[in-house]
């Protein structure tokens, strides 16, 4: 039975292409590429000769249907991006969702990830991290995304283009305060580099796509994201005594107890 294969490709070092990825690409009838010009050298290197289809963020919806139909008609389709895993801050999610909706089989062929590689390189001691990828274009949406992510109390992993990286660091500093940040670039290549600085005193050579790993701040109380009424209701609904709930909400929000008590009247 034909399948859609989600294939991870190297993020810089050709030697990181797995044997399974090579075999999958060589066997594919159709190879959907984010940029066919970028992918041709890799595909030629391994002898993959499937039909190339351009699949990028500007034609995702239209091309997703075409790729799903290829699989339904018995053709194995491999989906790749310029580097890393499709659907992770790269095109791919539309066709995967459509194929699953239509009952088309989807299989992953994992490969390198810039996010996990960067986190491993900086050596943070953390139980996890929040991956934001490329931040939204609108300033208001960027702020909202960062503020929401920061509430987890975990390091943030953000992708940045070289011409935007200093502006991005300064903007993050304005939202999060002056946290330590690691700028990771040229991963898996000869000049792989990690630069440690802070968001408001940022240092990094502006070359190649860059991964920013921002250290976590103090853990935030998720209740503070609620209104005072919702905060109080959450404790009362959980069975807490009214007097204790008022006292706790007032302490957590740094306001007088009588201000919270009035919400119960």
UniProtKB/TrEMBL annotation:
Tetrapyrrole methylase domain residues: 3-199
Keywords from the UniProt entry: Cytoplasm, Methyltransferase, rRNA processing, S-adenosyl-L-methionine, Transferase
Location of the protein in the cell: Cytoplasm
Pfam families: TP_methylase
Reactions catalysed, as given in the entry: cytidine(1402) in 16S rRNA + S-adenosyl-L-methionine = 2'-O-methylcytidine(1402) in 16S rRNA + S-adenosyl-L-homocysteine + H(+)
Enzyme type, top EC level: transferase
CDD domains per UniProt: RsmI
EC numbers: 2.1.1.198
Family of this protein: Belongs to the methyltransferase superfamily. RsmI family.
Protein's job: Catalyzes the 2'-O-methylation of the ribose of cytidine 1402 (C1402) in 16S rRNA.
Record's protein name: Ribosomal RNA small subunit methyltransferase I
Gene name in the database record: rsmI
């Amino acid at each position: 039975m034909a399948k859609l294969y989600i294939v991870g490709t190297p993020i810089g070092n050709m030697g990181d292409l797995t044997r399974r990825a090579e075999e999958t690409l060589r066997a594919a009838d159709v190879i959907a590429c984010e940029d066919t010009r970028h992918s041709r050298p890799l595909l030629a290197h391994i002898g993959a000769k499937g039909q190339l289809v351009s699949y990028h963020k500007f034609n995702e919806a239209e091309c997703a249907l075409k790729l799903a139909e290829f699989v339904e008609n018995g053709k194995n389709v491999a989906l790749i991006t310029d580097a890393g895993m499709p659907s992770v801050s790269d095109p791919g999610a539309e066709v995967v969702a459509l194929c699953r909706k239509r009952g088309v089989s989807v299989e992953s062929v994992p490969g390198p990830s810039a996010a996990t590689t960067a986190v491993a390189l900086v050596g943070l001691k953390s139980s996890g991290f929040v991956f934001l990828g490329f931040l939204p274009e609108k300033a208001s949406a960027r702020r909202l995304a960062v503020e929401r992510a920061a509430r987890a109390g975990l390091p943030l992993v953000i992708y940045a283009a070289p011409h935007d990286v200093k502006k991005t660091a300064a903007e993050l500093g304005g939202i999060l305060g002056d946290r330590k940040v690691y700028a990771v670039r040229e991963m898996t290549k000869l000049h792989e580099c990690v630069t440690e600085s802070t968001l408001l005193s940022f240092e990094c050579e502006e070359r190649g796509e860059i991964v920013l790993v921002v250290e976590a701040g103090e853990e935030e109380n998720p209740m503070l994201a609620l209104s005072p009424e919702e905060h109080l209701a959450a404790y009362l609904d959980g069975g807490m005594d009214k007097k204790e709930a008022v006292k706790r909400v007032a302490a957590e929000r740094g306001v007088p107890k009588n201000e919270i008590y009035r919400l119960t009247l």
